[in-house]
Prior knowledge:
Layout: H1 2-9, H2 13-39, H3 44-56, H4 60-68, H5 73-82, H6 89-103, H7 113-140, H8 152-202
Helix pairs in contact: 1-8, 2-7, 2-8, 3-4, 3-8, 4-5, 5-6, 5-8, 6-8, 7-8
Amino acid sequence: xxxxxxxxxxxxxxxxxxxxxxxxxxxxxxxxxxxxxxxxxxxxxxxxxxxxxxxxxxxxxxxxxxxxxxxxxxxxxxxxxxxxxxxxxxxxxxxxxxxxxxxxxxxxxxxxxxxxxxxxxxxxxxxxxxxxxxxxxxxxxxxxxxxxxxxxxxxxxxxxxxxxxxxxxxxxxxxxxxxxxxxxxxxxxxxxxxxxxxxxxxxxxxxxxxxxx
Length: 213
C-alpha cells in the first residue's frame, strides 16, 4: 500500500488522471446515495401493509395522508393511484404503469457511470504499468541517461504499483455500483407490488401478500 501511495506522490499524468476518475466516482456515488438511499427509500414492507390496510378499511383519505407524509418513490406511486378520479381497474393499471415509468427510471440515472469509471481506473492503472515497465526496460538497456540508475526488478515492481493503484480505485466503484443497483431494484420491486396490490384493494379484490423482502 505504501508503494501505491508513493506512486501517487510521483505526480505522473496517469496518477493525476486516476485521481480525477476516483473523485468523479465519489461524486457520483454520493449523489446517487442521497437520491436512492436517503431520499427515495422508506421501509417498504411496513409502508405497503399500512397503506393497503387503510384502503381496505375504506379510509382513503387516511391512506392519502399516509402516502403524503414522505417524499419518496413508493409513496408517490400510491398518491398517483389514490388521487386518480377513476376506479376502473383497466384505467388504474394504465395510471400505475405511467407512474412507474415516470418515477422509477430516475433511480437508475447515472448508475452506469460507476462501472464505466471503474473500467477507466483499471485501464489507467494498466497504462501506468505499461509505461513504467517500458521506462524500466529502456533504462536497463542504457537508453535513458546512458546508464541504469535503478535495478530492472525494482523498476518493474514500481510499474506494477500503477496497476495496483488502478485496482484500488476500481474495486470500491464496482462495489458501490452493486450496492446502489440493489437498492434501486428493491425500490422498483416494492413500487410494482404496491401498485398491483393497491389496485386490487380499490377494486375490492382479494389481497395476495407477496413474500416478505
